[in-house]
Amino acid sequence: MRVLVVEDEVRLAEALRRGLQAEGFAVDVASSGTEGLSLAKQSPYDVILLDIMLPGINGFKLCSLLREAEIWSPIMMLTAKDGELDEAEALDTGADDFLSKPFSFTVLLARIRALMRRSTTSRPAQLSVDDLVLDPASHQVHRRATDIELTAREFSLLELMLRRKGEVLTKSDILEHVWDYDFEGDSNIVEVYVGYLRKKIDVPFGTKTIRTVRGVGYLVKDD
Ligand code: CA
Q1: d(CA 79, CA 98)
Q2: What CA–CA distance (Å, rounded) separates 163 from 122?
Q3: Given 2.10.109.10, 3.90.1200.10, 1.10.390.10, 1.10.10.10, which CATH number is that of 127-220?
Q4: What are the pLDDT digits (tens) for 13-44?
Q5: Which of 139, 140, 182, 187 supports an S-S bond with 171, CB 3.0-4.6 Å?
């Protein structure tokens, strides 16, 4: 899943990028409100983390501009102090949640997971198709009694497909959610990763979880 971090404090922004990437997220960082606005208009983010004191457009203003532009990605504001005023204002401008700095990375991750659950139509803590189960919190995948080891990218791809179960995903849908803005290769990378995933989740079990919809994309649905 893809996250936009709008934060001008370079060290915090980089720590967030590294930490979230290690958890399998695709991460883009904007260091000003203006840059954040332009990135958010270009890509459908699954979550936006938004600092308040920013050069250019501040976080409150950016939040309301995003909602005016009908960008409905869940937004978590990172407030500098735990002033009630900040928090009330954050929610009033259309943010979904807030977290006061300094925060623990574990708490941040749990809150991001909760926001992503809220934003999908069905909200299971565990995602599944037939007997394949993916647990976003513990980062584990298993089919029947067998644990399946996936790389961070494969995990992220499978998580997207399970969250959007029953929908046909085009290659560009997949690229937008699983790869970050720095990715400049072509969309054949999606085919390559679908191939990796099939070798791990389907081939050993004789199943066909990921279906190819010719000329359109990929579909995962229950049998
Ligand atoms: Ca700041």
Answers
A1: 7
A2: 8
A3: 1.10.10.10
A4: 999 999 999 988 999 999 999 999 999 999 88
A5: 187
